[in-house]
Design brief:
- This protein is mostly helical and about 260 residues long.
- Helices cover about 70% and strands about 5% of the residues.
- The protein has 2 domains: about 10-210, Rhomboid-like fold (Up-down Bundle), CATH 1.20.1540; about 215-260, no CATH class.
- The protein has a two-stranded antiparallel ribbon with strand order 1-2.
- Helix 4 (about 70-95) packs across helix 5, helix 5 packs across helix 8 (about 185-205) and helix 9 packs across helix 10 (about 250-260).
- The longest helix is centred in the C-terminal third of the chain and has 34 residues, at about 210-245.
- It is elongated, with a radius of gyration of 25 Å.
- The chain starts with 9 loop residues before the first helix and ends with a helix.
Length: about 260
């Protein structure tokens, strides 16, 4: 093992900057309680908003960039995990795959916690990147279980670290069930992200690049569109050859002008 600060990777850097910018905005809004309340209700997962006719579907992603402005440890701890483990995972799978895992874990955690909140009739707001952090932790531990790190001056394998972290969340849920209380920690968001990270790594889906797939489909659609346009141009030119330009409708003439400009 070698003690060293890892070089920050591009995607992790962007997420850190985005999260820091949102936290700064939250801090400034906290001087105006009304604005702070409105912002949090709008972008954190707020279960009552999902009981309306038009649920706030964006919240299951935006909540992961918000943190409590009354607890600096909330954002600092999450960002430290992102820096140390995120850079390690991004170095293994690449930036675009890392972003897909991070956002996917965030989405899975948000949906699971929201479902539990709606089932239990809890109106507590959900915010924080912990679900995404657990997702990248489990994904990394699944890919590199025997890799050793120093955690709080204690040498651990990634597998052991992941087991400890998930175990803490499971016990947190059990304690809440025993005491019939709802604490301030969204344990199901943690577990949702952890399950997602483990599943995509174990199944091999982590090596797929969903953004490349989207680009491929867009390119195929563009090529089909160009082929269809060319076929239509050929058809109209044939029509002009046999019947003259006057045989074209205004719509057909406009199409030829657009095709000529392209």
């Amino acid at each position: 093992m070698q003690l060293a600060m890892p070089s920050i990777t591009p995607c992790v850097k962007r997420i850190l900057l985005a999260t820091a910018a949102v936290f700064l905005l939250q801090f400034l809004l906290s001087f105006n309680p009304g604005a702070d309340e409105a912002f949090t209700r709008w972008f954190a997962v707020y279960p009552p908003a999902w009981k309306s006719f038009l649920p706030a579907v964006w919240q299951v992603l935006t909540y992961g960039f918000l943190h409590s402005v009354h607890d600096m440890g909330h954002v600092v701890w999450n960002m430290l995990w992102l820096y140390f483990l995120g850079t390690m995972l991004e170095g293994v799978i690449g930036g675009r795959r890392f972003l897909a895992i991070y956002l996917g874990s965030m989405l899975a955690g948000g949906i699971l916690q929201l479902a539990v909140s709606l089932f239990s009739h809890s109106d507590a707001r959900i915010l924080g990147a912990s679900g995404a952090i657990l997702g990248i932790t489990l994904a990394l531990a699944t890919l590199r279980p025997q890799t050793r790190i120093i955690f709080l001056f204690i040498p651990l394998t990634l597998k052991t670290l992941a087991i400890i972290k998930v175990g803490m969340d499971v016990f947190g849920i059990l304690f809440e069930l025993r005491d019939n209380t709802g604490g301030g920690t969204a344990y199901f968001a943690h577990l949702g992200g952890a399950i997602f990270g483990f599943a995509v790594a174990k199944s091999g889906w982590i090596w797929r690049d969903p953004f490349a797939e989207i680009e491929r489909r867009v390119d195929e659609r563009r090529e089909r569109g160009q082929a269809n346009d060319q076929a239509k141009v050929d058809q109209l030119l044939t029509k002009i050859h046999h019947e003259g330009i006057q045989s074209l409708s205004e719509r057909e003439k406009a199409f030829l002008k657009r095709a000529a400009k392209r």
